[in-house]
Specification:
single chain, about 70 residues, mainly alpha, 2 helices, about 10% strand, rod-shaped
Length: about 70
């Protein structure tokens, strides 16, 4: 997600708080942008966790496992 899209999310948030409010089209745009932002953050987090290793007291590395594995 680029800075232009984040700026648009913030612009819509400010407009939503104003007495003018958002149109239906703007609400749909805001929802789509928010979903894209959340997906971007989660993807980045998953990438970091996939490359995370735990070092035990013996100095051995083991890959971080997903919950339930």
């Amino acid at each position: 997600m680029d800075q232009k899209q984040i700026d648009r999310i913030n612009e819509l948030a400010r407009k939503a708080k104003s007495p003018e409010g958002l149109t239906e089209w703007e609400e749909a745009e805001r929802a789509a942008l928010r979903r894209e932002y959340v997906d971007s953050v989660l993807g980045s987090l998953r990438g970091q966790l996939d490359n995370t290793y735990i070092v035990d007291e013996k100095g051995q590395k083991r890959k971080l496992k997903k919950k339930g594995e």
